[in-house]
Design goal:
The chain is of the alpha+beta class and 184 residues long. The protein is built from three helices and eight strands. It has a six-stranded antiparallel β-sheet with strand order 3-4-6-7-8-5, with helices on one face. It has a two-stranded antiparallel sheet with strand order 1-2. The longest helix has 17 residues. The termini are far apart.
């Protein structure tokens, strides 16, 4: 694909992935634009989503397949996560977005051990420190614990360690707002 910029600051060119248009600043080197588009296409930008994936709750069910719950107690959950190719990146490690999805699932599960069912949990914030990568086909031990749970807020801390070495690879915190379920 040839991409050009003109002196009008932006130009529109058909994108290789759809009928939409691509615009970029004339201050951008066209070679860099081409490299960026090539990278994004290699990462799957132009690939269609299979119809079987276009359902409600797909991601929760999908990521749940990689988690084995080892222990549950009030305010704590311990799990083993299997790092498989579908949740890995092109570099052969657990994808950062997969880490975020796993954090969300595990922190909700942990919060549910202390928050009553008559309250909805709304995710307010997640913070993640990526200390190292988890290689594909590795097992990761994930421990989630409630740091604080009050009437309106629940905070969960998570640690992810490689099972083989015990090395800490991710640290995360999640904050949930506890709201009563609306009665209509």
């Amino acid at each position: 694909m040839v991409v050009k910029a003109d002196s009008a600051a932006q130009t529109e060119t058909p994108s290789s992935s759809s009928s939409s248009t691509l615009s970029f600043s004339d201050q951008m080197d066209p070679q860099h634009v081409s490299y960026t588009l090539t990278f994004l296409n290699k990462m799957g930008l132009a690939k269609p989503i299979p119809q079987s994936c276009n359902t409600s709750g797909f991601y929760s069910n999908f990521f749940g397949n990689f988690i084995k719950v080892d222990h549950i107690q009030r305010g704590r959950i311990s799990c083993t996560v299997s790092v498989k190719p579908p949740i890995s990146n092109a570099y052969g490690t657990l994808h950062g977005g997969s880490v975020g999805s796993l954090i969300e699932l595990l922190s909700i599960g942990c919060a549910r051990t202390v928050v009553a069912e008559d309250k909805e949990l709304f995710l307010g914030e997640i913070s993640v420190s990526y200390l190292s990568g988890a290689p594909t086909n590795a097992e990761v031990l994930a421990d989630a614990s409630v740091v604080k749970s009050g009437r309106n807020v629940t905070m969960v801390a998570l640690e992810f360690k490689l099972k083989k070495t015990g090395n800490l690879i991710y640290i995360a915190h999640a904050t949930f707002y506890n709201l009563p379920v609306a009665k209509l």
